[in-house]
Amino acid sequence: MPPLRLLTFLRVCGATLITMQMQDTSQRRSFWLWLSLAGGAVVVLVGILWGLALWSARGDTANGTFSFRSNRIAVIDVTGVILSPDEIDRQLEQYSNDSSIKAILLHINSPGGGAAASQEIYHEVMHIRGQHKKYIAASIESVGASGAYYIASATNRIYANQASVVGSIGVIAQWVNYGGLLQWAKLKDVTLKAGALKDAGSPTRDMTPQEQAYLQGLIDNMHQQFIDDVAKGRKLPVTQIQPLATGQVWTGQQALPLHLIDNVGGFQFALHQVALDVGIQGEPTLVRQEKPHRSLLADLIGADARSLVPTPETLLDQAPGFYTMWR
Question: So which residues are the catalytic ones?
Answer without folding.
Answer: 146, 198
